[in-house]
Structure formats: structure tokens, C-alpha cells
Amino acid sequence: MKRTRFTLVRRPQGRPVEADFALVEEELPALAEGEFLVANRYASLDPAIRGWLDDAPSYMPPVPLGEAVRATTVGEVVESRNPAFPVGQWVVGLHGIETHSIGRSDGFASPVDPALVPSPTHFLSALGAVGMTAWFGLERVLMPAPGQTLLVSAAAGAVGSLVGQLGRLKGCRTIGIAGGEAKCRRLVERYGYDAAIDHRGRDAEAIAEAIRAAAPEGVDRVFENVGGACLDGALLALRDGARVALCGLIAEYNAPAPVGARNLWQLIVRKATIRGFLVSEWLPEWPEGIAAMAALLREGKLVVDEHVDRGLDQAYAAFMRLFDGTNEGKMILEIA
Amino acid sequence: MKRTRFTLVRRPQGRPVEADFALVEEELPALAEGEFLVANRYASLDPAIRGWLDDAPSYMPPVPLGEAVRATTVGEVVESRNPAFPVGQWVVGLHGIETHSIGRSDGFASPVDPALVPSPTHFLSALGAVGMTAWFGLERVLMPAPGQTLLVSAAAGAVGSLVGQLGRLKGCRTIGIAGGEAKCRRLVERYGYDAAIDHRGRDAEAIAEAIRAAAPEGVDRVFENVGGACLDGALLALRDGARVALCGLIAEYNAPAPVGARNLWQLIVRKATIRGFLVSEWLPEWPEGIAAMAALLREGKLVVDEHVDRGLDQAYAAFMRLFDGTNEGKMILEIA
Domain B129-280 has what CATH class? Predict the structure, then answer.
């Protein structure tokens, strides 16, 4: 039996190019005791994947050259030597962008029930790492109070669009930063943001000015996905005692040299905090977050946008949408 | 009656030059009801003063052109129209680098008892903003546990030397960063640091390497006074869940362009926090901090180094020592 894999053949320098990857067909190895074979239906494409392609110390080992690019997938067990993952079981796991993944109990894999959600893609969006990032970032890091002003960068993105909606449900005033007029319209019309700021053509000072126009007293909470001018602008518009949840720095990931943050002195002036976080910190509590997000979904209180591209041959192009900003919603690759 | 003032005549561009200031003699105005006249004995020279010279939004209004440079002073009341500050009373206040300051009840001024300390200069060092910065930064922001590793930058400085000693008294392993061999020797021999790192000639990566050599598992707590390569190096050597207290960014203050922090992504990887603070946050609790520091002084548990230059005509040169690093201990100007 064969599988096709989207493999890493060369470590990207800055922005990944197509030749850094190759589609490879190979014979599937036989399963060892405890292993199970997952036929992947969908793969989650996330900015974090970019970090895993570098050979740099991080919270996870780099993707080895010649191996499938690591991604969370959802699929069905089609062969098993593990009683906890029988044939027919649906599984979400940190596997690879490939038609078939070999799962292990000691890996990151969980059985899931597709009857719980309208589409199995939801396990990769609202109930997946993206949804949990929004939920725990807000509930455990930012802990905003009703009436506070919440600023979100990459606010139309997969995480940001959920953060804005969850913040609004908690009674916050929400301001979103996104790139381009169309996205800014989506922020207000689709995700219920109170104000939208287009970062295109604006430097940190201009972004700060736009934030202050929308929130003259400054912002209490910032959910930061971008870094660069977005973060530097936010730092210039903090209220005393503000908290910044540092979730991602997508402005840095493909930059040839670090962009950095130039306004950290505002943390002193504003007695403010930046807290970096990884959603894996609350892994034992995910069931609680998943239940909460599933309930909001069922009650129709959340708009969950997914951008699904089809076919392993589209993996590179689909991944790059994350950095070009041409996706509208959580980026997902349909594998089969 | 006349007074002499060290006034700001031009806003510095980057590094202050002597012509940005002028010594001015002027007739003292008559006291209004509620005012009192302080004959200043000593002025505290602090890096924060540099920020007050810029016309930029901050936690305090900029020093007006033509006015005395703002500084904390200690002195004696020599004339009074305020019963709470009678003639003969010693006062610590946020006044100016000048022979005489006019105090007001609604300003930052407190009566002090010089009998409590070996020297009135101690009100500007261990019992002043410097001592309170070390105390509250450690007690309220970093809250290190015994056995944790505490990294301090500008570790031989007025704040840093106290932080290292207080951290050690709390049972921490302490690592200090300073500029030059002589200062590094002081760190270990005089302030009891377990390890010293010379930042001269080292970039962020080399500083990180030196930190990891002294603390192979990384550092739990960072008391950051410098920014630039010191902060970037510290960020590369954090332990999971680390906390950074951002007290100052002296590397930025005179830089022509912002230096910035390039390794904020480490906050995500390490699930770490940076908290900026101003010692004024705990102003109501200062008596508690002052009592604690006074007790440590009396018990001989603290080495408090002061670098006293004499005369208002030395104000500029003395102030610049802070940025050249030629002071050995808390920088104080003796006025009279």
C-alpha cells in the first residue's frame, strides 16, 4: 500500500519557496505493535508550521529533511494494531501533510466523534488548536473584564476572528487590526468588532494613532498575533496596567532579519505585561475548552470561517496563503 | 535670597551634551501659603531623568525648558509657610538639581528622620527610589522562590547591586551582567553574585551562551535594567515559565534609533512574561519597604555603595557617569 507525502527537502531561507518541498510517493511500512494507520481527510495549515521547518531550538524538534511536513490532521483509522484506535475510529493528531499517517499512543492523537460537529473540519478550527488558542489565550492569559477594550491583531485570521467574537461575548469592546479594506469590513460585519484598523501603509505611530482614535483612553488587553508595527503600535496605545497576550509574531517568521519590538519602554510607562503562551500549556484542560466552544457553535453564537483548498498538490500554495493573507478563515487542506 | 539651578536650556538629541544645560543664578520668589523652602544637600542622579528631558508622552511631564532638571533631593527646610514642613525638618522630595527647592504639600515630598540612617544620602540610595525599585521589583514583580536562578543586568549599578544582594538573601542563585572586568569582580566579591558576565564585546547570542554556561537549565527570573543585547541574550536563556521584570532600558535612552528587542518569540516558546514597572506603583507601601531595607542596613546585611560627586558645577559630568558606567554605586550629587 502506498502513501503520498508533502515532504521537506530543504530548509527555507526566509520565505519558503516551492522547491523547499516535494511530493513523494512511498510504500507504507508495516505497522508495529501499538501503531495505527490514519487515512487523513484534512490537514490544518498554521503559521506555527513555519517555525518547525527551521533547524533552531524551539518547543518542538524541527521537521527532519525528507519527512512529511508536520501538521494536525483529522482522519479515519483504516488499519490498527492498537485497541484504543480501532478501524473506523476518527482521530485528530499531530501527524503530517500526507495521505496516511502512522499514529502511536505516545504521540499527540485523540479519538474524536464526528457526530458532535457539523463538519470534521471543525476539529481543526473552532475545536482545534486554533479555537483552543483563542479560548485559553482569552480565559487564562488576558482575563478581560466586561467593559474593557480588547485589541486583536490579525483579527480576521483563524485565531483572531474567534478571539474578537469571544471577547465580545464577554462584554469587551473589540478593536481589530487586519490588512486591507475587505478584511476590515469582515471584522465589523461578520465578526462583530466595534472598530477595524487597516495596518497597510501604516507604521507603528500611525497604527497607534488609529487605535487611540477608536479607544481614546487606550486599550486594556491586546491579543497579539503579528508583531512588528502592529505590536509597536499597540504598545504606544496601552492603558495603565494593560496585558498583552503574545500568541504569534507572523511579521517575523519569514523576515530576513528580526523585526523586533521598539517600544518596550511603554511597558514600563504603562506598568504593563506581555505574556507569551503556547496553547499546549493547558492541554489537560482542552476538553473544557472544546466543550465550551462546541456549545457556542451549537447555539449559533460563533461564526467559524474555514478556507479549504483541495489536494496535496496545493499544499505549498495553500500554506503560503497564511503569509500572503489571501485566506478567508482557518486554512485547511483537504487531502482526500 | 538667591538660588543656583542646573537648568535645561535645550532638549538633548540622543546623548546629552553640556550645552543642553546651564547653571543659572536667580532671585528666589517669595513663598506662597502652603509652600516651604528646602536647602538641598544631595540630589539623586538616575537614568530616569534622561527620559524626563524629552518632550515625549510619558508617566511624567517633561522638564520645561528653563527649569531646573527634576531630581529627588534630600535637604533641610529653611523657611516655611506649611506647618507639616517646619523649619529644621529634613525632607526627601521630587524637586530639582538646585541649591533651593520650593516644596508643596501636593508635590512628592516626605519628612524624614536623619537619625534613622548613618548618612542622609541613604534616603537617596537604599531607602530611596533605588532601594524601593530593587525591593518592590523583587517582592511584587519577580517573586522568586528559594533555589531559583535570578539574572540581573546592570548588576553593579545602584539598583542592580541591591537586587543581587536581596535575591541572594531570598535564597536565589544570582548571575550578574556588567560592563568590564573590574565591575564583574565587584559583582562576585562585593555583592555576592554567584556568577558574573561581562557584556562588553558580546552580542546577544554570546551573552546567552555565557548565561547558559552559568545556568545550564536557564534562568527563572530576570531583573532587566538595560535592554538591547542584554535583554535579547536573556530571552534566549529563559527557563519555561520565566518572568522578566522590566525596570529600565538604559541601552535605549541615548541611542539615536531604538535598539529594540529581537527575541520576543522566546516569550512564546518559554511561556514567559515581561512585566514593566514603575516603583511609584507601590507608593502607599513604601514605608514597609523602607522599614525592611533599614532593618537590613542596621543588621549589616547590605552593602550600599554610593558615588558622590561634589558641586552643582559637576552636575552634567556626574549625570553622564550613569551612561558611561564610570560610577561605582548609586550616583549622588552633593549640592551643599
Answer: alpha beta
